[in-house]
Design goal:
- This protein is of the alpha+beta class.
- It is built from 14 helices and five strands.
- A five-stranded mixed barrel has the order 1-2-3-5-4.
- Helix 3 packs antiparallel against helix 4, helix 5 runs antiparallel to helix 6 and helix 11 packs antiparallel against helix 12.
- It is globular and about 65 Å long.
Length: 366
């Protein structure tokens, strides 16, 4: 059985025959209208040949069909990275890590931005092609695989396995990631405020002391495994008059935050707190309980509903929160529920991005 056009195009791309893949895909545009895989494949081929404008167009068409695909997010992040727009790239990479915390491309890209992400270096990496290591992966080029490579690779893997055996008994580190490289420079510590605020939307006007204290708190909370508390300080800085370089370091710190569970979540803000100042709590995780109403499945595969917060018994209603799940969470809408979710924003509207639900087998919640 022959390959379909998209899979055949991927096969050509793995062999780095991008022009052939592009011609093949473009010849079948009418057939694959409204196909996510087609638009993503075509956008990736355009990205690899340097046609960034066409890559942006096709990725945008793919995003209309499937918003949270990790491969697509990596491609879009790479576009911003090669343009030198590291702030936007960081946002996309953090969304990747939200879906796949151990995604290697996102981790490597974040480390690159932190350590070497100045505009001149990015330009050199684009010019030499090194930036492609942050593109959606194509896999091994089969044309380069020769019979001599296989035994050599096997020997290397065997050696790594033998050398790595003692590491299995190594105790885990007592602390989280070393943040010494995110320390403020002398210039940042002496001038932490941004002087030109004409292009920024500032919500919190902070003194120099307050900016430094907020940044120090964020790092301390992170080391104490209090990511929500650290996130609040990061949000305060990102929406303040803090220097751009400090905001960028805060974004890098944010990329290290982990996805909690019901048992590990701390500093969960209340509905009232979030309602009073939603910007301060964006990307924080919450566990809110109540009843579900207006639940529906949408064509894009998402499940959307409204959570009647604290309305477990039907006697108290603290507020109403809009909730989205990427798939069907199988909630029994006639029973109380607890939801672990992340506070998100879209077009100035705040909603909860649901992660896990819990419903007791009994009438009430545990």
């Amino acid at each position: 059985m022959g390959m379909d056009v998209v899979n055949l195009a991927w096969n050509y791309m793995r062999r780095r025959k991008f022009s052939t893949a592009l011609k093949l895909l473009e010849s079948k545009a009418e057939i694959y209208e409204d196909s996510f895989e087609y638009y993503f494949c075509l956008g990736t081929a355009c990205l690899y040949v340097g046609d960034v404008g066409s890559a942006v167009t096709n990725y945008a068409l793919a995003r209309k069909i499937k918003i949270t695909d990790t491969r697509l997010l990596i491609g879009q992040a790479a576009i911003y990275l090669r343009r030198g727009d590291t702030d936007r790239a960081l946002q996309y990479y953090m969304e990747v890590k939200d879906n796949e915390p151990n995604n290697q491309i996102a981790n490597d890209a974040l480390e690159f931005i932190r350590a070497r992400g100045d505009y001149d270096t990015i330009c050199r990496w684009v010019d030499t092609g090194r930036i492609e290591q942050f593109y959606p992966p194509l896999g091994v080029n089969p044309d380069r695989v020769a019979s001599v490579v296989i035994p050599v690779a096997a020997l290397i893997l065997f050696t790594l396995f033998i050398v790595g055996l003692p590491l299995k008994n190594k105790k885990p580190e007592a602390f989280r990631k070393d943040l010494s490289e995110l320390a403020l420079t002398k210039d940042e510590a002496s001038r932490p405020q941004e002087t030109d605020l004409s292009t920024q939307n500032v919500k919190y006007i902070l003194s120099s002391r307050q900016i430094k204290e907020s940044y120090e708190k964020a790092q301390t909370y992170f080391q104490e495994n209090r990511d929500n508390a650290a996130q609040i300080e990061v949000n305060r800085l990102l929406n303040s008059n803090a220097a751009v370089s400090i905001k960028q370091k805060a974004l890098v710190l944010m990329s290290y935050f982990e996805t909690p569970t019901f048992d590990t979540l701390s500093d969960s803000p209340s509905f009232v707190q979030v309602d009073e100042d939603p910007v301060l709590y964006l990307n924080c995780w919450v566990v809110w309980g109540g009843k579900i109403s207006d639940a529906s499945m949408y064509d894009d595969g998402t499940y959307r509903c409204r959570l009647l917060v604290d309305y477990d018994t039907g006697e108290k209603l603290t507020g109403i929160a809009n909730v989205r799940f990427e798939g069907n969470p199988d909630i029994e809408t006639d029973k109380p529920v607890k939801i672990l979710a992340k506070i998100q924003q879209e077009e100035d509207k705040v909603y909860l991005k649901g992660k896990i639900v819990y419903q007791s087998v009994k009438n009430g919640l545990k």
